[in-house]
Model the fold of this input.
Amino acid sequence: GQLIDHEVLRQITQRLTNARRLFFIGKGNSGFAASDSAYKFNRIGIDARAITDTHEMLMQSTMLNKRDVVVAFSNTGETKEIIKAVQLAKNEHAKVIAVSAQPESSLCQLADEVLIYAIRESYLDSGSIYSKLAVFFLIDLVYTEVCKLLGEHAVATKRKTALALQELDASPNTQANPATGKATTQDTSPAPAASAPERSAQE
Done:
């Protein structure tokens, strides 16, 4: 069957674009996906945060509101810390997007929208490269759609963040050109000293 429902993708894109804040949560291998996702969305000017610590996750979930969105990662959809955090977030009327391989899981039942990837793992091969690639593909897909919706704002913000990082890596004499996004090097070497006047033959 079709895994990606284009209407659901459109709804998720709208929800993420209009959110006050995005909270990406995950434990273990899913925590890596949460961190990568928050980094991506921060680069285009969206207030996005990754939370992988259980205590912080639960505390933050009690301080959300209806304008916040939680994106919860769990391959099994039964990670107890994630389920508890999502329940707390729902109590505060935050919206929840689940990213999981198990559409019938507790997490997916709690979520407002669901992104499903078709990976079946045993406990022995949990966190395999196949599941990681599937999750990263889904997030990249949503990220691309959000970028399209934001248009020039996303492009301009990503350029600014790229320039900030470029300036950090550049030498002290290198400055980024905001118009082109390229670094330019200023020549700050001292001008050659004027040659001393030749002594007269009488000296």
Remarks:
- The chain has a mean pLDDT of 84.
